[in-house]
UniProtKB/TrEMBL annotation, chain A:
This is PqqA peptide cyclase. SUPFAM superfamilies: Radical SAM enzymes (SSF102114). The keyword rRNA-binding does not apply. It catalyses: [PQQ precursor protein] + S-adenosyl-L-methionine = E-Y cross-linked-[PQQ precursor protein] + 5'-deoxyadenosine + L-methionine + H(+). The lineage of its organism: Bacteria, Pseudomonadati, Pseudomonadota, Alphaproteobacteria, Acetobacterales. CDD domains: Radical_SAM, SPASM_PqqE. Its EC number is 1.21.98.4. It is an enzyme of class 1 (oxidoreductase). Belongs to the radical SAM superfamily. PqqE family.
Automatic annotation (TrEMBL), chain B:
It comes from Teichococcus vastitatis. Keywords: PQQ biosynthesis. This is Pyrroloquinoline quinone biosynthesis peptide chaperone PqqD. The gene is pqqD. Pathway: Cofactor biosynthesis; pyrroloquinoline quinone biosynthesis. Monomer. Interacts with PqqE. Signal peptide: none annotated.
Amino acid sequence: MNAIIQPSDRSPGPPPEPPLALLAELTHRCPLRCPYCSNPVELTRVAAELDTATWARVFREAAALGCLQVHLSGGEPTARRDIAEIVRAASEAGLYTNLITAGVLIDAAMMARLAEAGLDHVQLSVQDTEPGSAERIGGYRNALPKKLACAQLVRDAGLPLTLNAVVHRQNLDRLPEMIALALELGAGRLEVAHVQYYGWALANRDALLPTRAQLEAATAEVTRAREDLKGRLVIDYVVPDYYAKRPKSCMGGWGRRFLAVSPAGRVLPCHAAESLPGFDFPNVREVSLREAWENSEAFNRFRGTGWMKEPCRSCARAEIDWGGCRCQAFALTGDAAATDPACGLSPDHALLDMAVREAAASEGDFTYRVMGAAPQKA
Amino acid sequence: MTAVLTPDSIPRLARGMKLREDTARGQWVVLGPERMFVPDEIALEVLRLLDGTRSVDGIVDELAARYAAPRGEIAADVASLLRELAEKGVVQA
């Protein structure tokens, strides 16, 4: 890895632009066990989590650095007993606070505390609109009714709601029902996010990858609904890399717009970056967020375009998609500095078509997320 | 939740939207769920006039007085600006 990187290639230059948003992964604990969980396969235990005061300092540092929003995530952020204090600290730091939750642990009393603490917005996940399927995908009993109850609490508290539907082969056919559910629950926004295949999701890729026919139907449905529901429901749609010709601009470019802090305090350019080998990520217990953002080797390694190889280096889109996703490049090619195979120009692009064919021929069994046990297949 | 704004409508920032100063970048921004809008000078001026009591007509009056510009022109600009902001979910009546 290190042989590929030549720091002398990079001119010192001005400090990087400030980040827009902080993803605060408060904990890896979660009552659900979704087989596409975006947490790393090695989950952090409760004893190693940052305490309330440290998170409060992180929020103040993030705001001073230029962050405008914080996404309080996990794991399940409400699994932390101090979640209301954390919301208050983020809000007092001046950040727009967004709670990303599965909703099953939130009761009326907790919602009241969160709203009072200054929460600005709730993003609630749904695994499916069919109760049995929702229960199976999340690996959690009675998940859907609890989520519907949570949505009502959000509405009663007067907070705006986004419904987040992670979609894949086993629920994508119910996209019209998901859109209807978002309207019924009074959500102002629906996020239809195709699974991103790293970590746990990569281990479950064969069970989750949608077919091309499913994808085309879903894209048409989103296009139609966006037009019909203009002014009523905003629909964000994340298309799956496996059918793409150009890679997504992952995180808007490494170290350009976003930073994440893991439950144990590691500062990351994206929440999945711990899957990359050969990195020494800075920790908020040791350095300031500004130091991590502006000067750490980890953030500078894939920043800008100087690190790129061909075909990215001479590509006209180098500063549009920034080479795609580093985690996906590593997961599929073994080289984190390679062009994301989602790009049609990548020499490894055929890997994606092969995966699609393999998935089409396989059963739908899941490897569930468990703490202390990495998935067996990858 | 409607995209239709009449001269009598009282527009306001939609639920979850916040107008705030972004000191790090020397600008004002509208923050919403996973969204951020940077209003231009005119849009910022209109957004600052959304106080929950002023109607679309009232906003036009205020701007016409401030800029001594033809009222009809301002009314058309404000209407199209608010329509655009409503479609983006930034403003509601």
